[in-house]
Amino acid sequence: MELLCGNAEPEPRNLSLGGHVGFDSLPDQLVSKSVTQGFSFNILCVGETGIGKSTLMNTLFNTTFETEEASHHEECVRLRPQTYDLQESNVHLKLTIVDAVGFGDQINKDDSYRPIVDYIDTQFENYLQEELKIRRSLFDYHDTRIHVCLYFITPTGHSLKSLDLVTMKKLDSKVNIIPIIAKADTISKSELHKFKIKIMGELVSNGVQIYQFPTDDEAVAEINAVMNAHLPFAVVGSTEEVKVGNKLVRARQYPWGVVQVENENHCDFVKLREMLIRVNMEDLREQTHSRHYELYRRCKLEEMGFQDSDGDSQPFSLQETYEAKRKEFLSELQRKEEEMRQMFVNKVKETELELKEKERELHEKFEHLKRIHQEEKRKVEEKRRELEEETNAFNCRKAAMEALQSQALHATSQQPLRKDKDKKKF
Ligand code: GTP
Ligand code: MG
Asked: The whole model's pTM is what?
């Protein structure tokens, strides 16, 4: 009998099978299940307005997606996702193309990266919320997390703009970035070579992490290593078909010649399509989940107070963390309640004091008015008395006058009689 010490797991033993059992069909079962389920792939296109984003998408998937030209007068960067159902053989692909509309059109470009970062985080948050649900339905959940960001570089032949460096730096921990030089037919071969070296140098010196095609899978290690050295891909897009020899090919026709999109001597379009769609699509999806989403999830859960282990490396119980968080939340709630109650009491006291002060002022005003009123009343009374006295004096004078008048009248009526008497005497 084998004795196990501690928690050490027993070593698995190699056994040979007596015949065919059938679990070698597991990879086929997986493929069959995945094909039935279908795949989703989400591409974010970041680049100046009119740089050729829509044309390149149409060229890459050999179709015509619905697009609207941006106006160059957008007030801020806005993200426009559009989802399409594509089918090739029996494989269904739910493809979402997200356009960063208005990127680079604002005078102040300080915050141009913010809506893009917020959009990527929102998709991570939606996925996390689904994962945290009690009844999860991740099987048929439409995963909108961005799997790759195609960053369109303007073919100046000089260097990257600060906007490019700042944006890529802000995005590199959230999404797989594949930088591409757009409209590569507008730059000469020797200039393009120098431009590529300059761009890569600037990305390294500014610490921008771009997506590296994986070299750990033997089947694709060699091709991926070669392609990593070709970054950033210089691409040309076109939906126009031009006759070259006796074949119709996608190309751009100029007075001096034809630039063939799928000719590797003309541009890196084929390399991009090969790497993005045919070789590394699954790795891009995988990296999004295991690296970028994992980082977002970890930070978010840590922010919420969850940990895998405490200081002594003891595994943390979800129940304990929940209880601790709940207690913390309740005490915070209590503190806030007490604070608000105190604020309310203070406010009531203040209002009471204000009301008392107002009452006192009103009382004073009333007393003042009362005094004025009494004074007025006294004055009116005095006036009335004076007028009465004047009226009395006037009446007295009037009576005296009347008496005098009647006396005078009487006297004048006696005078002719006396004159007659006097005449008789003579
Ligand atoms: P918005 O969505 O409005 O931001 O534009 P966009 O980035 O989607 O550019 P779009 O694909 O609409 O192309 C704008 C113009 O550039 C069109 O006239 C295209 O024909 C042209 N164009 C696209 N790709 C290339 C290219 O590789 N080389 C050259 N020379 N012109 C291109
Ligand atoms: Mg477009």
From this structure: 0.75
